[in-house]
Amino acid sequence: MERIDSTYSHPGRKSLVSFLTLSSTLILALTLIISSFAFADVSTSDPLWDWKYDAIERLSLATGENTVLNTRPVSRLEMAGLVLRLADKVEVEDEYYKVLLKRLEEDLSEEIKGINESSYGDLSVKPLRWVRAKAVHTDSPVQIENDYGFRGGDLSIRGEVSTSGTWGSIGYELRPEYNLYRDDTDEDKLDLHSGYIVAWLKNIEIEVGRDSLWWGPGRRGNWVLTNNAPAFELVKLSNAVTTTPPGPLSFMGNTKFTALLGKISKQTIEYIDNGIPVTDNKEPLFIGGRLDFSPSRYIELGVSQGVQLIDRGGSGYSFDYISKTFIPTYDSNEEEGASGPVANRVTAFDVSLNMGGDHNFMKKLGLKGMKVYWTWGGETMVSDEHTKLPQTCFTSNLFGLYLDNGRTELSMEYSSSFDAKVTWYDHYQFTEGYMNESFVLGHPQGAGNRKDMFISISHPLTDSIVPRLHFERKEWHSGGGQVPMENDFGLSVDLFGERGEKIGISYEYRDPDSNASNNIWMLDMLYRF
Q: Is a pLDDT exceeding 90 seen at residue 183?
């Protein structure tokens, strides 16, 4: 985030919660290691665009299932355990929920069988788990939101497949992809979309490879991490299955922690080293942590932080250098422009209030499930020149409401990063800002001072045909006090098979007041083996 207000004493910044996030993650890692859990073997996960995440959250809200779903991905084995619990709670009269439940059971049949027969852990290799093809046509180039760095042009085609296997406590998944892009530039590229090796040791998951994460309750985006940008190389440590910590931390209820060390794409980084201006073109480290817990079925709380970091002048990452990155002091904050860490931090707190259909007021409203959520984000710390104490600089808010009456879903989100003092996701040292391969790592509304309102409504016409309408209004601040706006209107139709196969057709019309309108057509096909 780039500061643009002269009342701030220095462009350095620190995070008030970075030390809390780091220390709480370490404490929870130790306590959750010794926690027992239902599964003894490893499992892979599905991509963040997979329909199962929203389906399981929908059924969990409606039935009052107490779990943690604002941290993704979730392993297929944990999903299967959730589906087994949900099967005991879905009411006979909830016909569409039974359709969703059956579709989930078919998709996760192998994992469910393994749990029921206590046979999970045998050698299992799926040469092809699924195949996906997506084709896009746009009048002018755009970034397709929340699809691992997919660009739309005159003709854009992505083909991707998944191959995976597990054996005892070790598993792997590879998702190679082929991208064809035709517009003002032509590009053909065969690449590894994502892929990883994963090991479960007691209740600790260790993942090494290339992957993406979704941190927060937002359905369209979150501040710290989403799958808007391409997956990046990482080493990730988390608890394998959502667990209640033992002893004095048991009040937290269902808990998920995640810590990661990764590397993102090269960008130009400008800083001062020993009084000399330096320009580096290098791959920053990315360090992240999230704590997500649900003390009751009605509330879920989370805190996340992501940090872009390089070693100043190639001097390495000493303990003092790292401590100044994560433990804020006034002196280290003031030194940051000329010495100390070269770091860009984004932090967020989130709270979700969940309500099922068993409450009287929900019955009066004709609702089966409701979720109200708020995420407060920013780069968070500057020095106060008078008190010499760090002060918070939270600038971004995301508010959301989700309603479900058993068939119709309504989702509304409002996000704002308007602030007179800072420019969201930009940074005075990292010239491309909080990005990986030119895509923002967090919310797809993008960098800068912006406001975004998103409304989506869906209603199944049949058990397998689900149309969806959406409207989005975008505003962003520019020089001279102007506030350009854009209105987007979209219609999509998803056709589902019995095992979660899907064909999605969508059209979106984007009408900015400063440029020509844009028509976006998409065809998205998924087949499971």
A: no
